[in-house]
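Lay summary. Proteins are chains of building blocks that fold into shapes, and those shapes determine what they do. In this project we predict the shape from the chain. Here is one chain we studied, written as its sequence of building blocks.
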Amino acid sequence: MSPALTRVSSALATLALWLSAVGLIGMTLAVAWQVFGRYVLNSTPTWTEALSIQLMGWFILLGAAVGVREGYHLGFDILRIALPGRPARLMALVSHLVVLAFGLAMVWYSWDLVVGTWTATIPILGWPGGIDFLPLLGGGALISFFTLEHLYNLAAGHDDGTGA
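And here is the predicted shape, written in a compact code that computers can read:
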């Protein structure tokens, strides 16, 4: 892969991990505030659960996308490792194509969900309902991009087929 594109991909992965970490911290703080409010103030804040679910969607899907870039996603590695070069590369190609199809399906169908629910409102937060599905859209886009990076590397002979 070209050095510039590799730098962009690496920067996106790093940004996704940092955003995931911030989301995890934010969710932890929201849940802590909910527990504090319930047991100390005797007044449970209602917005904390909805916000926690929003943040959880982001850090899970961004982290999953980075996992695809780093080769930590599920795959049939035992057979691929046992096979010689060309069959192993073919299996890696098929695996990457399946992951790409999955990522593109996430983008396609989550876009429909975002658009279809945007005019609804998340009652407790007052946000458009489509925000619920933005993590699927962003995660699917990153999964697709990172998989395209692997396919390019595999075609250029820079990838051993492991996906990492």
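What the prediction tells us: The radius of gyration is 19 Å.
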